[in-house]
Sequence to fold (99 residues):
Amino acid sequence: MKIKRFVAPDMRSAMNLVRKEHGPDAVILSNRRIEEGVEIVAAANYDEGAVQRALEAARKDVAPPPPAPRPRSAADAMIAAVTRRKTTAPVAEPVAATT
Fold:
């Protein structure tokens, strides 16, 4: 695969440069506006199978992300709040009435 960057004052001129250099089977990889006009990055002899194989190989080299934390239930949140809560004053216990 041959990749080349083309810069032209407008999109039409840039596309003409791409067609002239790479032919009608060129693949546009990116395009953007720049100070000079338009930039196009194009590829010739683009083999999608080779690109997919390279992506799969790169994915194998990357460690999988850690599992996302599971959402807490309302009961778990309540228990956590109660255990974190500190009592600042003693709590009075009810006294049984004697008759």
The chain has three helices and three strands. Residues 2-61 form one domain. Helices lie at 11-22, 48-61, 74-84.
